[in-house]
Known about the structure:
The protein is mostly helical. The chain is built from three helices and no strands. The longest helix has 44 residues, at 2-45. Residues 1-31 are annotated as: Disordered.
Amino acid sequence: xxxxxxxxxxxxxxxxxxxxxxxxxxxxxxxxxxxxxxxxxxxxxxxxxxxxxxxxxxxxxxxxxxxxxxxxxxxxxxxxxxxxxxxxxxxxxxxx
Length: 96
């Protein structure tokens, strides 16, 4: 009987250890993914293309090139350079 209780206790401890190892592994994987994303963001901020950002950056660049010279682009530039968006010292910014 004592041996059975000891065996049950050992099995409970093994199960708990297994559960904790699973949780730790999931947390480790989540942190690795977060680090990978942060490294990609840092590389992007430094101007180094990363596999995660280069395609998005390229499509954004193409969209900007398409807008150059378009009526929308000229309108945006006019609005942004208008006096309504500048403070008393000529800096861009909303008055208010």
